[in-house]
Amino acid sequence: MQSEVMDFSRYRGTNPGSTPQRPLRTALVRLALLASGWLGVALPARADNPGYDRPGYGFTPVVLGAGEVTLEQGLADWSRDRQDGISSSLYSADSLLRLGLGGPLELQLGGLLYNYLHQTGAGLDYRSHGRGDTHLALKLALPSSHAAFSWGLLGSVEFTDGAPDFRNNRRQYLLGAQFNLQAGRRHSLGVYLEDVRSGGRDSRTLALSDSYSCSKSLMVYAETVLLQLPGRGHGSLAGAGLAWLVTPRWQFDLGFDRRLSGSASPWQANLGVSVYFGH
């Protein structure tokens, strides 16, 4: 029997690869347990809906049932960055299609369907748009002997098939681990750990979340994120957001993150919708 409050979360990161620096939405499987890490967010759900990976850093450690399908669509994700005197604003539409395989496994196909980039500074005024890279992922929900604790693993590979301004220089391989604790009937805590491997270099993320279910349909959350990026050092972010379960199958989300220190992007914001289709 499912509890009244279920876990929902979202994962993303910062891509230290090609121009410009942008949020990394995804990147198959490299197994080793990480020593840097991540976040999870909680949201109320209904018995026929196991939860969404949006919003926030991390993912829900619950998988879809065999043959079930969910579409999670970013409507207006935005990030702002500044490096070497150049300011970059990136607008993206991030898509994630999830398919339950049965048992503890879930298959995911995602990518950035559209990006718009604007760069200014040092006499530069550059604009570009196009599709981003595609990624394929496998999620594993791990067993737990405690009803209030859930955890899972996510492995993905991100290909280099996007438009020139929005593709990675090399394939990226991601391994993430999500840990969620239902601290109370309405209160949930999450830890997300991630390691992204590309070209022999690693990017690491640790994200912590604290979420509260205001009602059966509305959740608010706060998150703190620590980053380690090749060639850029360490950085940190803090943010907040909400998710609104409009119906048992439709969710809208809104959130933002602000740089606290180091090499993280000064601002990130996201607006999205998720739909659970069932079988």
Please give a structural write-up:
The protein has strands at residues 5-7, 13-15, 22-24, 42-44, 69-74, 77-83, 86-102, 105-121, 124-130, 134-142, 149-158, 172-182, 187-198, 201-213, 218-229, 233-245, 250-262, 267-278. It is an all-beta fold. Strands 5, 6, 7, 8, 9, 10, 11, 12, 13, 14, 15, 16, 17 and 18 form a 14-stranded antiparallel beta sheet that branches. β17 and β18 form a beta hairpin. The protein starts with a strand and ends with a strand. The relative contact order is 0.24.
Mind sketching the topology for me?
Blueprint: E1 5-7, E2 13-15, E3 22-24, E4 42-44, E5 69-74, E6 77-83, E7 86-102, E8 105-121, E9 124-130, E10 134-142, E11 149-158, E12 172-182, E13 187-198, E14 201-213, E15 218-229, E16 233-245, E17 250-262, E18 267-278
Antiparallel strand pairs: 1-4, 2-3, 5-7, 5-18, 6-7, 6-18, 7-8, 8-9, 8-10, 10-11, 11-12, 12-13, 13-14, 14-15, 15-16, 16-17, 17-18
